[in-house]
Specification:
By secondary structure, the chain is mainly α. The protein is 74% helix and 0% strand.
């Protein structure tokens, strides 16, 4: 593969891996199936380890890749083009999917069987509620990620003004890490997202030779060492709390990137390329499947483990089938919902 094609192929592979992990983050179902069963503790421990620990590198990985891709060839004169492309790839899908979720909840809340599964009562229908749902992702909680990406894109002039100065950007990222590990909250802007995105942007400006350069054994060993350090941060009592978790979530995807030789990765299959669509539909489908299955198989301790384990494969198959059909039958709708990807 040509230089750019292998890089894009590696991005697709990592996006697919992170998408699978995101599904696990949202697939915990032990309490739905087991209630106060004596097996609940063991089942939840397994699901927390995979979904709330290992899989938590996914969203930081996505933010770092997004920041890297935005700033890897950035110049001031390209700002308008970057903004225009993100209107299509971020803002339009954000508004459309939020409206789809809102209407789905409005309709579902008026169907007796579905209402019981949703557990939200009757959702009010009106212009105010619709606009509120579109702008604030009221019924599409996972789109907090897209909301933050939109904010970070708007802040590009400020971020680039800092990132283009090496010492200033390193100092700013250090200060930002301090506030993140302190648990500082700023209304509207997620500081964790800002940290991961800024690190990706820093890499896009200063680290392209390392990130996109020829893979070597030394680079692979460095990746393995970074991954090992990530695991140490995960299991070590120091630094405890948020600082340790943030270090793990930064180092794990970075180490994985360096560890894998992108030029030797097989070309990503078509069913691996529906990652945004998978992200957009998985949350509602996971909840629907888990709640429906719990009504039938509640009390069987093996059921939540099996369903949790296979949920990413189920969602990947569903997104591939639905996305492929829509791409062929409704290409214009597909382009809008998938952000032109």
């Amino acid at each position: 593969m040509a230089d750019e094609s292998w890089f894009r192929n590696k991005i697709t592979w990592f996006s697919f891996i992170f998408s699978i992990l995101v599904v696990w983050v949202h697939s915990a179902n032990g309490e739905l199936f087991l209630g106060r069963s004596p097996y609940l503790g063991a089942v939840m421990a397994f699901q927390r380890f995979l979904g709330n620990t290992i899989a938590q590198i996914a969203v930081p990985g996505f933010f770092m890749m997004s920041g890297y891709l935005f700033y890897r060839n950035f110049r001031w004169e390209r700002l308008e083009a970057k903004w225009n492309s993100r209107i299509r790839s971020l803002l339009v899908p954000f508004l459309l999917w939020n409206m789809i979720y809102y209407m789905g909840y409005v309709i579902g809340s008026r169907i007796p069987v579905v209402t019981g599964i949703m557990g939200k009562g009757e959702i009010p229908f009106g212009w105010y509620e619709a606009i509120d749902a579109m702008l604030h992702y009221r019924y599409n909680y996972v789109f907090w990620y897209l909301y933050q990406l939109i904010l970070l894109t708007v802040l590009a002039p400020v971020l680039y003004g800092i990132l283009k100065h090496g010492f200033l950007s390193a100092a700013a990222i250090t200060v930002l890490f301090y506030f993140v590990q302190r648990g500082t909250v700023i209304p509207g802007l997620n500081l964790d997202a800002l940290l991961y995105y800024s690190l990706g942007g820093f890499g896009g400006i200063y680290g392209r030779n390392i990130i996109e350069g020829q893979w070597t054994v030394r680079k692979g060993l460095a990746g393995a060492g970074i991954w090992a350090a990530a695991i140490l941060f995960l299991i070590s009592p120091w630094p405890a709390g948020i600082a340790g978790r943030v270090c793990y979530r930064i180092l794990a995807p970075a180490g994985l990137w360096l560890l894998i030789d992108g030029r030797k990765l097989p070309e990503a299959r078509e069913w691996m390329q529906y990652n945004f669509f998978l992200y957009a539909i998985h949350f509602a489908m996971v909840r629907l499947i888990n709640k429906s299955a719990a009504r039938i198989l509640g009390g069987y301790w093996l059921a939540p483990i099996v369903l949790f384990s296979v949920m990413p494969a189920m969602m990947a198959a569903l997104s591939s089938a639905a996305g492929s059909w829509m791409k062929k039958r409704l290409p214009r709708v597909w382009m809008l919902l998938n952000g032109g990807r």
